[in-house]
Amino acid sequence: MSGAGPASPGRGGAAAPPPADRRRDSPAAGSPIQPIIKDVGEVYSRLLDHRPVIQGEIRYFVKEFEEKRGLRELRVLENLKNTIFETNEHVLPKCEQAMQDNLSETFKRSDVLQFVVSVQAANAMVRRLQERECEARKIQADKVMAREEKCIAHWEEFMKEQQNKRAEVDEEHRKAMERLKEQYSEMEKELAKYASF
Q: Which terminus of the chain is more exposed, N or C, with fewer CB under 10 A?
C-alpha cells in the first residue's frame, strides 16, 4: 500500500500511466490524499472549466440563429448586396451619364432666360408644395376640431344624464322622506292611543 505496485484502474478507469509519470504520482498513489486530489480536480472541472457550458451555449445560439430563423437575415443581406451591386453597376452610371448630358446641355444653353424659367418653375413647384402642406395642416386642424366637438358633445350628454339621474335620485329621496314622515306620524298616533291606557 506504499504505492510501489501498479495503480488500480478502479476510480478513473484509466490505464496505468507511463513510468515517467509514476515517479510524480507515486507519493499520492494509494495514500489517503489521492481521493482528495481527485475530488479537487472534479470540483475544478465543474466550477472553473466552463468550456462545456460555453460550447453548449454556442451550439444553441447557432441553432437558434441559423436553423429556426431559416437564414432569413442572410437572405436579406444577400438581397441588399445584390441591390447595391446592381445600383453601382447599372443605375449609378446611367445617372452619372444623364447628369453629365444635362449639365453639358445646360452649360451650352447658359441663357439668362432659361435660368429665369427654371427658377420660375422651381418657385411654382415650391408654391404647390406649400399649398399641399397648408391643405394637409387644415385637414389635420379640422380633424382635431371635429374630435374636440365630439368630445364636448359627449361631455354635455354625460352631464345631462348625470343631472337627470340626480333629479331621479332626489325625487326618490323626497318620496322616501314623505313615506317615513307618514309612517312616523302613524306610529305616534298609535303610541298616543296606547299611552292613554
A: C
